[in-house]
Amino acid sequence: MPGPFEIDRSLPSAELLEVAKQELRETPEVRASAIEELRKLLKASDLNFPDDEEFLLIYLRPTKFYPESALKLMRNVAEFNKTYKELLHNLMPADVKPVFVDHGLINIFTNRDQKGRRLMVVHMGEKWNTKEVTEDQIFRALYTIQKLAVLEPATQINGAVVIYDFKGMGMGHVKAMSTSGAKRLLTFIQEACPLRMKAVHFVNEPMIFNMVWSLFKPFVKEKLNKRMFFHGEKMAKLHEHIGKEYLPANYGGTLPALDYGGKEWYPVAEQYNEFITKWNSCGFK
Which residues cross the membrane (predicted)? Predict the structure, then answer.
């Protein structure tokens, strides 16, 4: 078993493979056929992506093993990286270290939820010093986390859940966000991220959150809209989606209050610099 602050790259258990079969059409035969077909499509395309099995599975699982859909997702990723080249080109963990280590704005829980999904919380209120950390830097950190999450077969299959915590949000935070930043984040989540985003929960939203939501709402598509939930300070509503026994006391759960954060997680990122460099090479030929 991997430690609490490690990427879980263990092969899927029989139970997990059954989930993959039911939800993603994954069987040994479908997997082998899809990998072979995607390799052919990739070779004939204008895209430059690694074609080893581990890498192709990252794109085939979220697209339910339809090779054409996986290729389209790859193209979306290439387009996104091209559009935001100045922000993302050759982005390495060291480039976003302060967001994790010094500010602790993003935290990945060491446990999964009742459905085996990865849980992450993003602090967009009192912990966010807008004079020291920009909207762009937060996005770069989120983009880096994605590169690590896709390495986990369990996360590829079960997906991820994000909690956005707006506790202590003020006008300074609202002013630090932009329409272009909102569009970029939602384009990434909905079109250019090879992860199954199963739910997005908003908690501790103040009244002025409506101003923030007005930035994001125009870019939210129907599929994601159905997976977005607004709870305010009512953690019982959050517990309808994530069991109390899987949440820390910070969110009304029965687990101990969070005593770890980005500082503990950051060294994990640097262990995968080789893979991240490989990921950064993806794009158009």
Answer: none
